[in-house]
Amino acid sequence: MSPRKLLIIGLLMIFSGWVGFWFGEQKLKVAFANWKPAVVINQNPVLEGKQQTVDFSHFWEVWDKVSSLYVDKAALDPQKMEDGAISGMVAALGDPYTMYLPAQQNAAAKEDLGGEFDGVGIELGFDKNNNLAVISPLDGSPAAKAGIKAGDVIAHIKDTAAGVNENTDGMSLADAVKVIRGKKGTHVELTLVREGVDKPIVVDLVRDTIVVKSVTVTFKQVNGKNIAWIKLTRFGDLTQSEWDDVVTQVLANKTNGVVLDLRNNPGGYLEGAVYIAGEFLPAGRLVVTQQYGDGSKVENNVTRNGRLLTMPVVVIVNKGSASAAEILAGALQDYRRAKVVGEQSFGKGSVQQPEDFPDGSGIHVTVAKWLRPSGNWIDKIGITPDIKVAAADDPTKDPQLDKAMSLF
């Protein structure tokens, strides 16, 4: 090979090495300083064809300043910063139901709708003194097996492996759920205060996979009648099949009436509300109308032949009944198919469309209002009961259920 060719090859190798080094250096700069992209224009076709422009250079300028100046470099987590930026952008719309969910939160939301998660099996809430308390232990769960009872106050939570050792004073419900839940097989220690017991009770629980049914039924004898008390806690992935199983039990037990308990039901899939409404309303009846931003409407009607079309029914709601639960209660009330008992419901009158992204994160976007069959929009208003009954402070009493049962 001639010296000239060797020189050319050598120069190419040196140049290639330099280019590789340069690109590697730039990659590091992008990772830690985030290069400002040349294309900073975002076209928004939604606003009636008007082109909107957004210059993202300021965003990257702020990102770079924070990355270079912030004192605790170990706290600079690019993923958390990105999630925070996206969350803030979505929150700027001012709609609490349009939200960005980072991967972990998105997975947790899907678990809740799926009715299966890892934990100890406690439904949490606050007692009349605003103490974190056990509303009820779930049947067969680690909490139930350990003897935890409804009304127990959770004063302290300890999870050594997770570095948690906290009193619950001032702790939010979301934070309490986060620290008590955990992977199957791991431990969490709860310190309980129980009425009538002088000393605190310390319980060490081993987390397990908890399967929570969204539909349960209990049969009660009232004035010589057999009444089915159906608790519907969410509209999730398994709700329709669980509902069908419960209706089969209702028919097999020669039932004289149904109390449909929607208290503390936060909603879920709209399709589930339409399906269950079809158990009590004839085919073709309008259950809910979705009204979109462009003025178009989609009507959701009953498309099946229900099995409880002539069964007397009473619905119970409270301030925790929202969204799909209000759709169901509102439809049965509008057609005078059921009396509604309890407290004013939450008042969530919008429909969210979930979208998932490849990294596991997701977004829920408000795409429409929902209207009752009467045409009314209940957002921030709620369902007004036909018979108003306040909840009792004493967790051993249930005047709302008692009133519903007395109507048969």
Topology:
Elements: H1 3-33, H2 57-69, H3 78-91, E1 99-101, H4 103-114, E2 116-119, E3 122-126, E4 132-137, H5 142-145, E5 153-159, E6 164-167, H6 173-180, E7 187-193, E8 201-206, E9 208-211, E10 215-222, E11 225-232, H7 239-252, E12 257-261, H8 270-280, E13 286-292, E14 297-301, E15 313-317, H9 324-334, E16 339-342, E17 350-356, E18 362-371, E19 387-388, H10 399-406
Parallel strand pairs: 11-12, 12-15, 15-16, 16-19
Antiparallel strand pairs: 1-18, 2-9, 3-4, 5-6, 5-7, 7-8, 10-11, 13-14, 13-18, 17-18
Key descriptive features of the protein:
408 residues; alpha+beta; Pdz3 Domain; 2-enoyl-CoA Hydratase, Chain A, domain 1; 2 domains; six-stranded mixed β-sheet; 10 helices; 31% helix; 26% strand; globular
Helix content: 25-40%
Pattern of helices and strands: HHHEHEEEHEEHEEEEEHEHEEEHEEEEH
Arithmetic mean of pLDDT = 84
Largest sheet: 6 strands, mixed
The radius of gyration is: 28 Å
Tally of individual domains: 2
Number of helical elements:
10
- Stated plainly, the CATH topology of the largest domain is called 2-enoyl-CoA Hydratase, Chain A, domain 1
Content of β-strand? 25-35%
Unreliable spans: 2-46
Q: What is the level 1 CATH name of the largest domain? A: Alpha Beta
CATH architectural group of the largest domain: Alpha-Beta Complex
Name the strands of the widest sheet in spatial order.
Answer: 10-11-12-15-16-19
CA-based shape? globular
**Tally of DSSP β-strands:** 19
